[in-house]
Amino acid sequence: MELRGRNKVSPNFNMSSMTDIVFLLLIFFMLTSTLVTSNALDLVLPTAKGKTSSSQVLSVNIDKNLNYFIDKTPVDPNLLEGKLKKLLGAQEKPSIMIRAEKSVPIEDVVKVLDIARRNKYKAILATKPK
Predict the structure, then answer these.
(1) Three-class SS of residue 9?
(2) Which regions of the chain does DSSP assign to beta strands (E)?
(3) Do 40 and 62 form a contact (C-beta atoms < 8 A)?
(4) Spatial CB neighbours of 123, under 8 Å, sequence gap ≥ 6
(5) Residue 57 DSSP one-character state
(6) How many whole angstroms separate alpha carbon 67 and alpha carbon 86?
(7) pLDDT tens digit sequence for 40-68
(8) Given this model, what pLDDT does residue 53 score?
(9) Which of 84, 94, 104, 114 has a beta carbon 3.0–4.6 Å from 100's, enabling a disulfide?
(10) At what angle do helices 80-88 and 106-118 cross, to 10 degrees?
(11) Per-residue pLDDT averaged across 73-96, rounded?
């Protein structure tokens, strides 16, 4: 007399639910990545091998006509330090990102770096990745 178990476990694994989850996550990340906007002007940056920090910092932009901007707000270069002190005064670890176009003379970038050094702000020089 031959006795067999009636409850056999199938060794197959169904991947359909796993692929559904992966596709939903893919769609979610594709949609949310397009909604992220940078609070900066469209400048032609110099290239470098390093990476630009993506943490929350205040952006100081200098365009090719030597116009200064804090984020997208135009600022007089003589009033730049006062505006930065006003905006960064309450932060625990204040930092600024300097975004200068390729054609901007280095002296203008050094002025902003000097303001950051005097006020003990962390200064980040933005570049375009290679």
Answers:
(1) coil
(2) 47-48, 58-62, 68-70, 73-75, 95-100, 122-125, 128-129
(3) no
(4) 95, 96, 98, 112, 113, 116, 117
(5) -
(6) 20
(7) 566 666 676 765 544 457 889 999 899 99
(8) 47
(9) 104
(10) 40
(11) 88
- For 24, phi then psi, to 5°, come to -65, -40
Q: What domains are there in the chain, each with its CATH number?
A: 47-129 (3.30.420.270)
Is pLDDT at 5 greater than 50 in this prediction?
Answer: yes
Q: How many CA atoms lie within 13 A of 128 on its CB side?
A: 10
Q: With 0.70 as the threshold, say if the pTM is over it.
A: no
* DSSP string over 100-118: E-TTS-HHHHHHHHHHHHH
Query: Is 85 within 8 Å of 79 (Cβ atoms)?
Result: no
Cα(105)–Cα(87) distance, integer angstroms: 26
Residue 72 has pLDDT above 70, yes or no: yes
